[in-house]
UniProtKB/TrEMBL annotation:
An annotated Gene Ontology molecular function: ATP binding
PROSITE patterns: ABC_TRANSPORTER_1 (PS00211), ABC_TRANSPORTER_2 (PS50893)
Matches recorded under InterPro entries: AAA+_ATPase (IPR003593), ABC_transporter-like_ATP-bd (IPR003439), ABC_transporter-like_CS (IPR017871), ABC_transporter_ATP-binding (IPR050763), P-loop_NTPase (IPR027417)
Lineage, opening ranks: Bacteria, Bacillati, Mycoplasmatota, Mollicutes, Acholeplasmatales
Protein name: ABC transporter ATP-binding protein
TM annotation in the entry: none
SUPFAM superfamilies cross-referenced by the UniProt entry: P-loop containing nucleoside triphosphate hydrolases
Domain of life: Bacteria
UniProt family annotation: Belongs to the ABC transporter superfamily.
Keyword set, alphabetical order: ATP-binding, Nucleotide-binding, Transport
Domain ABC transporter: 4-228
A Pfam family of this chain: ABC_tran
Length: 291
């Protein structure tokens, strides 16, 4: 059984398209990265998943049951962080933790750990926090009751690099304990670091879904070198001159590539995988980027 099952999901706001036809599956214990340009339908899909928005058509199941508002059993098993999470502005952070603690009955030791990882200042009022510090409270509230499924909409936006790393490490630790994580983000390097599978949505349609390692394996390598020489390697494509030297894409064995490269007096050569950003930009750019 999949923890999340979305099949031909459609959502129209009146005549305006929210989702056209979204299909994706999330397995137990995996971290699934959900990405797409602005207005593609990510938040719409997540809100339907959380039972906050009715669908127009299709299937949306969580833990094998249709997503619907007020299903307390299901809600208990999920930790949700909306992209625009906000809390009582006049409450101190410590009071917010007590408030949600009374409802969710978390393990105090785990709350303490999260406060430490996220470097949360307990004495400030919520209203006085910066954007990034407010984000941390959203993360804390979503994770505190140690749910089986985490649904996180843009969790890392605004976090400083150290906190971001600690938060992503925590997600990996939760995954190792069997927690399933559905993560929407514009920060593709985060997705690349932690996700097992990735879904790309564009204009309300999930146009690509694959394992991260397959996605990267199917792609070519990027070779960057300096200074410039007009080199030729079999199977190279997109050869370009750059300010420092040159670059090309390459698909094939390493031996012929290294043999050719060794014939030149380079000061620097980098052979690297294509980044997730480069893979997805090629999909975004294949048609009009925005809807
Ligand atoms: N309440 C609403 N009423 C009308 N249209 C809406 C509403 N909410 C979303 N939409 C439209 O549905 C489409 C999908 O929006 P959605 O917010 O789901 O995209 P998104 O992928 O989350 O975008 P972003 O990355 O910018 O947050 C957009 O065209 C948006 O304008």
């Amino acid at each position: 059984m999949h923890v999340i099952e979305i099949q031909n999901l459609k959502k129209y706001y009146g005549t305006k398209r929210g989702l056209e036809s979204a299909t994706l599956y999330v397995k137990k214990g995996e971290i699934y990265g959900f990405i797409g340009p602005n207005g593609a339908g990510k938040t719409t899909l997540i809100r339907i998943l959380m039972g906050l928005l009715p669908k127009t058509d299709g299937v949306a199941n969580v833990f094998g049951k249709p997503c619907q508002m007020g299903d307390a059993d299901i809600q208990k098993r999920i930790g949700y962080m909306p992209s625009d999470a906000s809390f009582f502005p006049e409450y101190k952070v410590s009071e917010l933790i007590s408030f949600f603690g009374a409802i969710r009955k978390p393990n105090p030791k785990y709350v303490e750990k999260l406060c430490h990882i996220l470097d949360i200042d307990l004495d400030k009022t919520y209203a006085s926090l910066s954007f990034g510090n407010k984000k941390k409270i959203g993360i804390l509230v979503a994770l505190m009751h140690e749910p089986e499924l985490l649904v996180l909409d843009e969790p890392t936006t605004g976090l400083d690099p150290l906190i971001q790393k600690q938060f992503l490490d925590e997600l990996l630790e939760l995954k190792s304990k069997g927690v399933t994580i559905f993560l929407s983000s514009h920060v593709l390097s985060d997705i690349q670091k932690v996700c097992d599978r990735v879904g790309l949505i564009k204009n309300g349609i999930v146009i690509l879904e694959n394992d991260m390692h397959i996605l990267k394996k199917e792609e070519h390598k990027i070779v960057e070198f300096s200074p410039f020489y007009p080199i030729e390697v079999p199977n190279m494509i997109d050869f370009q001159k750059t300010a420092e030297g040159g670059t090309f894409k390459y698909q094939g064995g390493m031996t012929p590539l290294l043999k050719t490269l060794s014939q030149y007096e380079f000061t620097d050569v980098v052979i690297r995988d294509v980044s997730l950003e480069e893979i997805f930009l090629s999909y975004y750019e294949s048609e009009d980027y925005h809807d």
